[in-house]
Amino acid sequence: MKRVIKSNWCWLMGIALFMAACNNSVNKQETMYTCPMPQDSVFSDKPGKCPKCGMDLIPMTDRAMHNSMNMTDSTQSNVKAYSCPMHPQVQSDTAGSCPICGMQLEKTKSVTEPKAVSLNTLLKPSNQQVIASIPMVHMMEREENIEMESYGFINYDTRQTGIITANFSGRIEKLYVKYRYQKISKGQHIMDIYSPELMTAQENLLFLLKNDPDNTLLINASKQKLYLLGMSNQQVNAVIKSGKANYAVVVYSHYSGHIHESNGAAMNGNQQTTMNPAASTTEELSVKEGMYVQKGQTIFSVFNPDKAWVLLNIFTGQAAMVKVGDKVRITPETNPSKDFRAVINYIEPVYREGNKTMTARVYFDNSISKIPIGSQVKATIFAGDRSAEWLPEEAVLSLGLDKVVFVRNGESFLARKIETGITNKHLVQVLSGLDKKEAVAANAQYLVDSESFIKTN
């Protein structure tokens, strides 16, 4: 009997010890501690302080522990089996092609696979190598239709510029142009000039006609001199008919357009002076009645606003792509509805003073559109097709003069400098520094710390 009681007692003790061990295990599982700040992701099996923020660790409930353990599984279950190497946002459960670029979808690497990161990788500075799990893309080779944006402005076509000059020295008796940019027409009366030289030439002709009418050689020579001094055939005939020399000779315009005062048009007595640069911003003319003009002096320039050209700024990186004959769409910023098509007619072979861009000229007829001279324009240049290797614009980080991508290196990303070409439709041309088989971060900005300076090898 004692032996049976002793045996039962041993069984009871064993069961009690087993239950105590189970309780201990449950209690240990339930007494996990975490930081109140979830973003710190600090967990411990005993109370203490958070090593990141210094706050006291708090016990975790069963539900919180369960959610924390299952968060990764829930996230991983949403990852699709296939994605596009150029557009990682395109994902699918089945194989197929990308609806954006047409490339075949590639199988996504399972995120449930264990990822081992070496200590050497962890110890590298964060401005040189980054450990992250973000979408990746590969460099893609294909033919792209190149469209480049450029900016510029509308200006007068200087090939159509006319000038009004003084063919003889004299004094301005009457001026019919009152302000800058005044519109004039061909044949319009511009000014009356008194010239002693012209008066003498007229009197010589009248003297020959009166005293030696048969001397046609001298008479024709006198007429020719008046023509060379700027008088028209009609004016010379009027002098012969009236028998009197004109005191002042009328100067007419041979062009239509807007009046612009020429540099050096301002006079003071018989001395020519340089026009004040500030005068170009006012409407007042420096040429006045009573002023003297010199023989051969340019008094006014006439610009025709109906004959204009667009001056486009071409950056150095685009210069190799742009050529004469390329089609272009011009959109005036003042009136976008008046956009028009044209071609590049000329590319200036030099840089203009103070500019770091080359200038392309686009000639056009402004008689219908009537776009004001000086209007800013936006242009789209169609430079044809080009086959090259491309990366999405978001994958390339600009560091001023350098361009950087983050190349996949095991389970981390390594910053690498690359040589780039043009940017077209949010794609960047890669010239060197990257292999087709290498994967890079789809968005380089995600791997940049605001306080870091990127270091490349």
UniProtKB/TrEMBL annotation:
<dbReference type="GO" id="GO:0015679">
    <property type="term" value="P:plasma membrane copper ion transport"/>
</dbReference>
<feature type="domain" description="Heavy metal binding">
    <location>
        <begin position="82"/>
        <end position="107"/>
    </location>
</feature>
<dbReference type="Pfam" id="PF25919">
    <property type="entry name" value="BSH_CusB"/>
</dbReference>
<feature type="domain" description="CusB-like three alpha-helical bundle">
    <location>
        <begin position="197"/>
        <end position="246"/>
    </location>
</feature>
<dbReference type="Pfam" id="PF19335">
    <property type="entry name" value="HMBD"/>
</dbReference>
<keyword id="KW-0732">Signal</keyword>
<protein>
    <submittedName>
        <fullName>Membrane fusion protein, Cu(I)/Ag(I) efflux system</fullName>
    </submittedName>
</protein>
<dbReference type="GO" id="GO:0060003">
    <property type="term" value="P:copper ion export"/>
</dbReference>
<dbReference type="InterPro" id="IPR058792">
    <property type="entry name" value="Beta-barrel_RND_2"/>
</dbReference>
<feature type="domain" description="CusB-like beta-barrel">
    <location>
        <begin position="309"/>
        <end position="374"/>
    </location>
</feature>
<feature type="domain" description="Heavy metal binding">
    <location>
        <begin position="33"/>
        <end position="59"/>
    </location>
</feature>
<dbReference type="InterPro" id="IPR058790">
    <property type="entry name" value="BSH_CusB"/>
</dbReference>
<feature type="signal peptide">
    <location>
        <begin position="1"/>
        <end position="21"/>
    </location>
</feature>
<dbReference type="InterPro" id="IPR058791">
    <property type="entry name" value="3HB_CusB"/>
</dbReference>
<dbReference type="InterPro" id="IPR058649">
    <property type="entry name" value="CzcB_C"/>
</dbReference>
<dbReference type="InterPro" id="IPR051909">
    <property type="entry name" value="MFP_Cation_Efflux"/>
</dbReference>
<dbReference type="Pfam" id="PF25975">
    <property type="entry name" value="CzcB_C"/>
</dbReference>
<dbReference type="InterPro" id="IPR045800">
    <property type="entry name" value="HMBD"/>
</dbReference>
<dbReference type="Pfam" id="PF25869">
    <property type="entry name" value="3HB_CusB"/>
</dbReference>
<keyword id="KW-0813">Transport</keyword>
<dbReference type="GO" id="GO:0046914">
    <property type="term" value="F:transition metal ion binding"/>
</dbReference>
<feature type="domain" description="CzcB-like C-terminal circularly permuted SH3-like">
    <location>
        <begin position="392"/>
        <end position="446"/>
    </location>
</feature>
<dbReference type="GO" id="GO:0030288">
    <property type="term" value="C:outer membrane-bounded periplasmic space"/>
</dbReference>
<dbReference type="Pfam" id="PF25954">
    <property type="entry name" value="Beta-barrel_RND_2"/>
</dbReference>
<feature type="domain" description="CusB-like barrel-sandwich hybrid">
    <location>
        <begin position="163"/>
        <end position="302"/>
    </location>
</feature>
